[in-house]
Amino acid sequence: MSEYKTLSWQGLWKNNPALVQLLGLCPLLAVTGSFINGLGLGLATTAVLIGSNTTVSLVRNLVPAEIRIPIFVMVIAAFVTIIQLLMNAYTFTLYQALGIFIPLIVTNCAIIGRAEAYASKNPVKFAAFDGLMMGVGFTLVLVTLGGLREILGSGTLFSGAEFLFGDWAKQLTLTLYVTEHKFLLAILPPGAFIGMGLLIALKNVLDKRLEQLNKQPAKVVQRARITAESS
Amino acid sequence: MQSLIDKIRQGRFFDFPGGVHPPGRKTLSNQDVIGKCTLPEHLYLTVKQHIGAPGQLQVKVGDEVLKGQALTRSTNPFALPVHAPTSGKVTAIAPHVSAHPSGLAELSVEITPDGRDKWIDLTPIPDYQQLPKTRIIEAICDAGIAGMGGAGFPTHIKVSPKKDVEFLVINGAECEPYITADDRLMREHAWQIRQGIDVLCHLLNPGHVLIAIEDNKPEAIQAMQVACQEKPDYIICPIPTKYPAGGEKQLIQVLTGREVPHGRLPIDVGIIMQNVGTCFAVADVIFTGKPLIQRVVTLTGEAMTKPCNVWALLGTPICHLLKHAGYEKAQQGVQRLIMGGPMMGFSLASEQIPVVKSTNCILAPTQQEMTLPEEEQACIRCSACADACPVNLLPQQMYWHSKAKELDKAQDYNLFDCIECGACAYVCPSQIPLVHYYRVAKAQIRQQEEEKQKADKARDRFEARKQRLEEEKAERELKHQQAAEARREAMHKQGDDPKSKVAAALARARKQQTSDETTAAPETADKVAAAIARAKARKAAVQQGDSAPSDTADTAAEDKQAKVAAAVARAKARKAATQQGHAAPSDTADTAAEDKQAKVAAAVARAKARKAAVQQGDAAPSDTADTAAEDKQAKEATASKSKTTKQVKPKDKVSTQVTAADTPVKPAPADDREEQKRQRVAAAIAKAKQQKAQKDRQQASSTADMPAEKVAQPLVEVDEQKKQRVAAAIAKAKARKAKLDMQSSADNQQDKTDE
Amino acid sequence: MSLLYALLAIGLLALLFGLILGYAAVRFKVESDPLVEQIDAILPQTQCGQCGYPGCRPYAEAIANGDEINKCPPGGESTIRQLADLMGLEAKPLDDAHGSNDVKKVAFIREDECIGCTKCIQACPVDAIVGASKQMHTVISEECTGCDLCVDPCPVDCIDMVPVKVTASSWRWQLDAIPVKTID
Amino acid sequence: MSLRIASSPHQRSQRSTAELMRLVCYCALPGFALQCWFFGWGSLLQFLIAAVVALGTEALILELRKKDFEKALSDCSALLTALLLAICLPPLTPWWITAIGAFFAIGIAKQLYGGLGSNLFNPAMVAYVTLLVSFPVAMTSWLPPQHLAEHPYNLVDALSVIFTGFTGEGYSLTQLRSDADGFTMATPLDAVKTDLSLGLTLEEATSKGQFNNGLGIGWFWINLAYLAGGLVLLKLRAIKWQIPVSMLGTILLVAGIMHLSAPDLFASPWFHLLSGGTMLGAFFIATDPVSASTTDRGRLLFGAGIGLLVVVIRTWGGYPDAIAFAVVLMNMAVPLIDYYTRPRTYGHQRQRGKP
């Protein structure tokens, strides 16, 4: 159980792929113009992560170390293709909105990173859970950033939810304010960078607080004797 | 080439980049002739006043010295002597605060003048042109002449170059604001300076002599022109006034357009530079024989009521000069004194700092004329510093890196080419003390390099040691192997004769013991014991507080207890020995040889040792003296053993108090056998004693010894500190006592043994 | 059919790249691990053991294998910074558990108290103590790294760690630390 | 009483950072005054808003960073940033846009980078670019010069428009911008750009009302005023000549060549030099010491780069004026420029590969 707990903590916060490892920044910054876009990409990435982690873990003992990376890439590519086709079939508008970033999940370092660093060394159940948590962590950052940018840039939230969830979700769209002068910067790429920077800063601040809260009592390390004392 | 000299003759000079124009304020002090100063009460001559090595002291406290007498001797090429500036008595040779930015104390000779001002016999060499050059250079060296411009480089090294000298540059630029010492010197002693230049020319044989004077000193220029009239190859160069035109490298650039390559000396571009003050001093030496004992010092600043130039004896404390110039601290607000000019001088930490060979100015500014440094603000990268830098550095980059301690990057920006002229900090609008950052960074880099070297050396030594230890170990192992082989061989020869084995074992034991004895010869052993006891006492004193041995009654009781315990131990050991059949410890089993006697002996010894150790451990605070007593007992025992054995040869088992070791001795057939055994027993006892003593030391304090019974009574009342001291004393006494006791109680012991 | 071609092409490419990679792996093999040497060169070589390893080199090896870089009190901040640069890590403050970066010290033996036991000689990692059995010992302060390993073994406690005295040449422009004499 | 210990040099020139900043402010005043004269009170109000927000932000963030903000505020750098920003903003920009700009300039572009001296980009220009990108309409709503305007406005109107969006008489900003024919009056640069893109020749484009002999009315004088202020700065050695000279020279050269090659398609170099923020940029913005190059050769390169970018962006870019973009882009190149233009230190020979 504690392993699951550690994995959750690592994936969601401590070793968050987006905020700490800074992996997969390209899709992260590119598609987080709105909450739903972020959510869509996040879910897709999560699905790929779980699938690839599970598969990699399953075959981990069969794969020769020398060619593991190409094999991982093949596995990931396969899952990405599956996801891509699924999205093409069921959430076509979103698929179009996300565009190239769906196929680009293949190159998302977060995925191959987890496959290499974790899944290839651990049993299936942990690997799958790790994929889930990393994916959720990534998704959380995506939706937070997407939500922030959407609120600042267009004054709405959850707009386009119908693309992901179907027509019923149209009513989910919240309009927070209407203005003649929209804050375009938030929607534009610089806004993504600035927002991302601020999120990372926020995380660091929180981490510092946490650290101060549970400060470890000072330990003293035994000094090694270099040379023997005389007998 | 010719065109260059033509250009110089026409007064067309080059320029160096950057530079600043701080207000000169030279008229403050250059109005009057150079004055004379009265003798101070004491003179402090720092032994090392130049770049290089200090000279070797020639005088001792109490010596009478004459004016001009050498106080130190030059022992290597980079050492310069210092001379007594007046006649008097050497009253101290001790560290005195020195003319260094750090204000650290350095070895100085304190002279109390006798007021007679009596010269030593002088030997001028006016016929220097007939003498060999080495003779002149020697005279210059013996006169202690170092560059008087500020750096203090030994002049005799500078005037004996290995290369041809194209230009001899005489530096009279004096670009620092406020300072007028060279200015006045040129105005008043141009003739003698010229004579000094003649001497230098004789030594260096330069192509041309350039006398560089900033054009804000027209009188000095004129005076020098007059003095050099008959020397057509002496060219007076009135160079434009700009700080730091007087810097060696900058002056070379201004005059010749040449640059001294990084890490090289001016002589590498065919130039030698000497300060006018140095020329004057050289002339002094050659024509009057006077060594360097005084120099012109500018006393200036608005806090001086009578700013002036003065001939100051080396070693004169600053406060004496300040008095001369009418220094009024009330005018200053915040007091500060600067040695050197306002751009490169350093602030003084004490008024007792003496004048040294490179002291050209004492500056006491008021707050209005030099505002106090404000708090440093953020650098706005205005690059005013880069524009002011005379060597084309990027001061702000160096500042960033120095501040961030990125020393390698700072070096990458040529930090070490900085001449610390202060132009950058002068212009900085953010009040950043840039030069200070560079100095700190330079010092850090030097320190790091030093540490790196030291670390490399330490690594080498560590590895060498490791290797040595390994070799030693291998050697030892080899020896052991050989010994083992030898033994095996012997065994083969003697078959399964148990005696030989025993003999070998005994021989080993004996060897060990003798070696023990040699290392711990009785006297040394006592000393060592005393020392160890002392140390323990100290340690105990530190740890004291919770341990209760200050209680005398307790001590006494424990002492007794310890004795009892020892007795019990002995008894038990004896018992063990007698009952060895069933009570033999398991570990004896493996050593159990065929030889019963040997087995018995070993078992007894071991058992006793263990028992004793355990017992003594229980009887907690038994002490070293006790140990000594036991030791003595043991010795006594062994000593009397032969007697005992003789006396009680057909002894019954229980009747005697003889040490346990005696028991197995009983059936011993031969004398030498007995001897061996005795030794083994003694060894065992010694071992036991040692173990016990160790345990004692760990838990008990030294107060719990026999003499403590007498002394410890007052301990209960006295405070902790006293207790500790007493404890230490006791510990020391204890060892002595133990020795005495050993002898005095010999009879007693004998009785006991006999009992 | 086209599927077959695609598979064939991919397979051939995989084979080709595999061969190149395999060749490169043999051809450009790195013989030794120079990282340890580099780290060792940065460490101050006091051999004090405060890092918990018996000597600087073992610690260097430990760092190369991923141990923390902030365990060397004698090296202090500058060593940590250099290590961080070398290892591509972030510099962090010295770990207090290993002691603090004190002023530089050297051992000094109070010679009249020395009993000549040679224990300190055996404890000194750099052979900076000279002396023989029953002769008094002395420290070659030039060689002493200030590790204070000799202090504990001394049975008579006659070894002191003395701060290295600042001289004019080793002075580092600590202007604010200059004691200023008061004038009246 | 004890002796004061300090590091040399003990003497210092008396110019301080605050003085330098104030000097720059003063020298910008004539141009700013002219701007107010031509385009109304709005600019002054913008300055006040920007100054209040900028100083407030600076104080707030310094407080958060636990630094002494009184001292930092007194160096006038925030004030200068506010002034430069206000100069760049259209006079009747809604107040909150100005506030966002000022906050962005100080909070993001300056303090997040470490405060005065550590910012990589010119804060005022970063803020301007941010606003321009975020609110393109509001940021290009320049009024016609007052004497050409259909509805000249007074101080109260300005206040009202800035804070509510309408004058007291109910005119909106768009109406204020319209000329007699109901067409909005763009800035000369904007107009030229639009017209050229519509296929008109330069001559046709510049024949409109806000042009006078091919140069924009008002802008011409304003630029001259900034030029004068800049010359004073040069004279007082507050800035160095390299950046303005190389920047204006490059504009002249590049625009000149282009104009000569196709007079109908490319505006004349004089038009480039004397419209928009060219002079302001050359003397007041590009010379910001913190974000500009610090070596002499570097400054020449830096200025030339800005000049080139200005012409290029004005001609082919999507926004009418280009000073801000050019400056920010070149700011980015400063560390590189500085590294490769290090001066040769005394006694060092120039080595190949290592300048």
UniProtKB/TrEMBL annotation, chain A:
Database matches in InterPro entries: NqrDE/RnfAE, RnfE
Major localisation: membrane
Subcellular location: Cell inner membrane; Endomembrane system
Transmembrane found in the keyword field: yes
Keywords, alphabetical: Cell inner membrane, Cell membrane, Electron transport, Membrane, Translocase, Transmembrane, Transmembrane helix, Transport
Membrane topology: Multi-pass membrane protein
EC id: 7.-.-.-
Enzyme type, top EC level: translocase
Top-rank taxon, per record: Bacteria
Segments passing through the bilayer: 20-49, 69-87, 93-115, 127-148, 183-202
PANTHER family: ELECTRON TRANSPORT COMPLEX PROTEIN RNFE, ION-TRANSLOCATING OXIDOREDUCTASE COMPLEX SUBUNIT E
Stated family: Belongs to the NqrDE/RnfAE family.
Assembly and binders: The complex is composed of six subunits: RnfA, RnfB, RnfC, RnfD, RnfE and RnfG.
Task of the protein: Part of a membrane-bound complex that couples electron transfer with translocation of ions across the membrane.
Protein name listed in UniProt: Ion-translocating oxidoreductase complex subunit E
